[in-house]
Target: Large ribosomal subunit protein uL4
Amino acid sequence: MEVAVLDIKGKETGRKAKLSDSVFAIEPNDHAVYLDVKQYLANQRQGTHKAKERAEIAGSTRKIKKQKGTGTARAGSIKSPIFKGGGRVFGPRPRNYGFKLNKNLKRLARKSALSIKAKGESIYVIEDFSFDAPKTKSMIDVLKALGIQDKKSLIVLGDSNKNVYLSSRNLKGLEVVNSSELSTYGILNAKNIVLLEGSLEGIESNLSK
Model:
């Protein structure tokens, strides 16, 4: 499929960018997308939750009442979970929520996400650009020219560009990544995907394997 190449003012340059059908026009695999997004979100969890259990509570170990004759249940420790201030039964412990997925599945998921965006005409291709210095207003002007200033957007660079990255850092709803950092969650979380011409080769080489 072919997409018109725009400049940073939102005007057509008269050139067309060819997007590989094997990356941008496949039949989406919903389950692969689900698994990759699930893994991404799982990896964001710190897993540092912790509740004190019976053995970790500070308190007396004396038997709090006699065994028989009270008319109530036996009780041997104030740290028992049935008492206020006692330990928690099977409380959360620190753990790693991450899990593994094979590379082919993750590749399929990213291609599926890009195909969904391409089908919805949410992908823009613009010529490579840079800024002389980091300036948020310069990035806002680019987004306004493309008509996406009020929408969640993802800009994909071909190579690392410090000034473009720093210019976007203060803008809510905008994320800038290199082609090698592209993730299924990032693609689906954005309303629009803006691909710089220089990123196309990297995306297709990474996902066409």
Observations:
- The two ends are 19 Å apart (CA to CA).
- The mean pLDDT is 92.
- The chain has two domains: 2-45+98-207, 48-96.
- Residues 11 and 145 are 8 Å apart (CA to CA).
